[in-house]
Design goal:
Blueprint: E1 5-12, H1 16-24, H2 26-32, E2 35-38, E3 48-51, E4 54-56, E5 63-67, E6 71-75, H3 81-87, H4 91-98, E7 104-112, E8 116-124, H5 131-153
Antiparallel strand pairs: 1-8, 2-3, 3-4, 5-6, 6-7, 7-8
Length: 168
Amino acid sequence: MTDSVIDYTVYIQADPARVWQALTDPAYTRRYWGLTFETDWAVGSTMDWVERGARTHDPEQVVLDCVPDRRLSYTWHTFSPQWAASAGITEELRAELAGEPRTRVTYEIEPVGDTLARLTVRHEGFTPGGTLIGMCSGAWPMLVSSIKTLLETGAPLPEPGPGPGSGQ
């Protein structure tokens, strides 16, 4: 990690097709992330984020790259007032996040032997030392670990309660 990029890699006992499914199928994303993406995953297509009953749509929230079972990239979401209200984010924090540049998330999936996949997440374009990178740097390890746990055990990690390391 640098002051403007988050890189996180994990090895998952699953083939690349299952990892891809976990990243793109609403039945999976809802379980480990609590949200779904509504998109056709074609490059240039918009992505609606549906989280806690709030739909976030923005024409600049798009799929940037899509190679099934190998690579997926998209612009990070829009910090709308509706999203903030559903997520319990104050208007002051939402405005701070919205004032930072839009970022990009890229997932690289690589087979490792016959039974493993290496998943690398790269989230880039942050304002150096900004609010968003601070929030995301703590969230990505938990999120990626939950994908791994879901694919290997059938259940995602439990949501952390308030306290140290929970971001709350």
